[in-house]
Every structure is written in structure tokens, then in C-alpha cells.
Amino acid sequence: MKVDPRGQRFSAALTTIVLAVVLAIGNAGGWLLAAQAVVFAIGTVLGLQAAPYGLIYRWLVRPRLGPPAEMEDAAPPRFAQGVGLVVSLIGVIGYATGVTALGMAGAAAALAAAFLNAAFGLCLGCEMYVIIRRIWPGRQADPAKPDKEVAA
Fold it and tell me: Do residues 16 and 118 make contact, with C-beta atoms less than 8 angstroms apart?
């Protein structure tokens, strides 16, 4: 499956805003971090085509931009959503158990990664995916089956 890389940066920008608010409101941010974890979970489990921020991009933003110059493989950004899920769940656990420093650390780590993607197009989770695939290749893609394209 292929995705529009602009949609990934748009999603990262929205994630950056949400996570900045989480850190700004302190202990009360646990519920918002949990909501962001749900967004990450949807993108990880159901795929980027079902992710809420991707749907916003596909319905409201992409029609105004026109088609992308190129599409990219969906596997690395989907893996990155999983990494975001794990990091944000660590933060949710921190907030829920009263270990505010852990909650803030989880939110801050996710914020740093989202900001790098939104501002510079550097997806840390995607880079992790590539490194893991080099070390542990797994099954290879079937060249007889072309990838599908989606907007986000």
C-alpha cells in the first residue's frame, strides 16, 4: 500500500499540537495523551487509511493540494504509529499512576518525534523500521502484486 507523504507530515503536525497541549496542562493531560494513544492505535491496527488525522487530511486538505509528486510505502509510517502508541502508553501509565515525570517523559518523547516529522520530514519510527528490516528482513514483497494507493 502507498500513502501520500504530505499526509504523514500533516498528521505529525496535528500530533505535535496535541502533545504540546498535553505537556502544557500537566497532570490533567493524561486523558488527552490517552486520546492520542487511541489515534496511534487506530493507525497501527487498522492502517493509515483509517487513522483519524489521515481521514482529515484526505477529506479536507488533499483536495486543495492536488495529487502528490510521489507516494511512499505505508509500512514504515504504520510502524511509526506503533512506536508512538508504545511511547504514549508509557506516558498514560505514568499519568494514571501519579508518576507525573513518566507521563511527561512519554509525552515529550512522542512530541519530539512528531515535531521532527512535521517540521523536517524526518520520521524516527520510519527510520527505525528501515534499520530493523535491514537487520531482520523477514518475508520479501511479492513483485507480482502491485501496491495499492491511498490518500493518507
Answer: yes
